[in-house]
Prior knowledge:
Elements: H1 3-7, E1 11-15, E2 23-27, H2 31-46, E3 51-63, E4 66-79, E5 92-97, E6 101-103, E7 109-112, H3 118-124, H4 144-148, E8 154-156, E9 165-168, E10 178-180, H5 185-189, E11 193-202, H6 217-225, H7 243-247
Antiparallel strand pairs: 1-2, 3-4, 3-11, 4-5, 6-7, 7-9, 8-11, 9-10
Amino acid sequence: MSEEARYSEGYAVLCTVTGTGYCMMMGRRGIVGLIAGCLSLLLSACGGSDASFRYRLSFSVSANGVAKSGSSIISVRYWRGGASWGTGEATYTVVKGVAPVIDLGQYGMLVAAMAYDVDVWTSRKACKPPLPAESLPGKFRLEPAALAGLRGGKLDLGDDSYPAFIWFPTGQPYEQAQQLCPEEFSSVIGANIELQSVTIEAAPDAPLLTRLEIKAPWLDEIRIDQKTNSAVYSKSGIFKPNRTRMIETDGI
C-alpha cells in the first residue's frame, strides 16, 4: 500500500477483534460512524495495551517579511500491536485536540490540519504526502509505550513530514478554503508567504483543548454546517474541510 493510502484521510484499515486478523479497507464515506460504533468494543478487547502521547504542534511562516506563528496541543491514543510506522502490526488510534492556526490578517487564516484530503493532494502532488496527526509522533522513532513515557524532546520536521495546510480566505464561506502545500502559499494566498518551520514537541502535562478558542466567521459556519458525527461530502473536484478530523475534535 502506498504512503498516501496508508496515512490519508481517504482510507482506514479496520481489523476484527476476534483474533482472526481479518481486515477490510473502506473509503472515507461512512467510516466515521463505523469507527464510533466499534470504538468501545475495540478498547475493551485490547485491554491494557494502549498508550497515549500528547504533543505540541507548532509552525511559523513569514508573511511579507513579518514572522507569524501558531501552536496547539494534540493527543494520540494508540492501542493493540506495535506502531504502524515500524513493526507492521495493526495499531489503532484516536486523535483529540485542535489544529494550530495562524491569523494572516487581510489574507485570512492558515491551519496546520490534523488530517488531509487524499484526493486533493493526489490531483496536484505539489509536495510530498502530508502526515496526519496520528503519524507525526512516529518521527520520534519510538513505540507507543515509550512515547507515553516521553517527558521532553523537540523535533524539527522536514518536507517529508509536514501536515497538510488549509487556507481560509477572509470574507469567504468556509467551502472556499483550499488545502495547500507550502510550495503553493505565495501563488495562491498572494501575501509573499513562506513556511519557516514545523516542529513537534512532547508536552505530556499541557492542557488539551478539543475546541478552538478563536473567533472567525468560517469557524462559526463550519460548526453549524457539520454537526456532531455528521458525514462530510465533497463535490467532485471541490475540497470541503472536515471539521472534526482536520480542525477540532470536540464532536468526536
